[in-house]
């Protein structure tokens, strides 16, 4: 009996030492243990009733699990009313946020930090006008900017690409539209050495056709890598440079920058829009309509089309912006 009690005490002491040692060891290496992802998405929505009433919208950030949704910027005053934001992009390292609006009387775009502070209108110091901006893209260096803006000398809306930077604020056209062509959805390569964009080819009495093209940031050396009669509406270049996400015929596809290995990733009823790659190029976020009338969903899937999950379902329009 005495021998049994002594063994039990020894086992308890041994277990105690194992537990204490394990706690100390885990504390020592705790910073190396896998942690839950703290990735966030930045998007635009008029989900706030106050913004919908003002015919404006706001910029939000949200965790991938749908938690921590926070309005960081919205209802930007302009004239006697407020701006309606058409597109945003961000740069995590510098914490920059650039904000485009399709107002014809606004020559420039707004620039702020990702906490909503230091909001100001960034006007061009020289060169091309920046009115009626449909899309805006920050280069990987966080300084160069490419926008798709409307040129108003045509009877039908036509868009061209204009480039510049946040430092000199000098802007110039790199792809001017014509009655037969528009240019949109600029997407920077990860090294900043190339720009991908959509070419919309208009012809009388027929539907437009579409091309995915790549050129240098000054618009030279254009090469068309993909042609389609289906609507090509949004593109995004992956952070590792291996893929371009493209919305073709309303569904998400990916293809190589040379146009090869085209793969369909989505089959959402009602289609999808605004794909954006995660910083590690392993996931893609996008917007899909909800089954609830008047609502839209911010979604995430793996880069192979699997593991589709909803981040948030919100009332009103949604434009996917960028990952943090």
Please tell me about this protein's structure.
This protein is mainly beta. Helix content is 10%, strand content 47%. The strands form 7 sheets. It has a 5-stranded mixed beta sheet with strand order 10-14-13-12-11, with no helix packed on it. Strands 3-2-1-27 form a 4-stranded antiparallel beta sheet, with no helix packed on it.
Keywords:
2 helices, mainly beta, five-stranded mixed beta sheet, 324 residues, globular
Brief synopsis:
This protein is mostly beta strands. 10% of the residues lie in helices and 47% in strands.
- The helix count comes to 2
For the largest sheet, list the strands in their spatial order.
10-14-13-12-11
Amount of beta strand: over 45%
Give the helix/strand class.
mainly beta
Task: Please give the radius of gyration in angstroms.
Answer: 24 Å
Order of helices and strands: HEHEEEEEEEEEEEEEEEEEEEEEEEEEE
Task: Give me the count of strands.
Answer: 27
Give the helix/strand layout.
Blueprint: H1 2-29, E1 40-45, H2 49-53, E2 58-63, E3 70-74, E4 77-78, E5 81-82, E6 85-91, E7 96-101, E8 109-113, E9 120-122, E10 126-127, E11 133-138, E12 144-151, E13 158-165, E14 170-175, E15 181-188, E16 195-201, E17 209-215, E18 223-228, E19 232-237, E20 244-248, E21 251-255, E22 263-264, E23 273-277, E24 283-289, E25 295-302, E26 309-315, E27 318-323
Parallel strand pairs: 10-14
Antiparallel strand pairs: 1-2, 1-27, 2-3, 4-5, 6-7, 7-8, 8-9, 11-12, 12-13, 13-14, 15-16, 16-17, 17-18, 19-20, 20-21, 21-22, 23-24, 24-25, 25-26
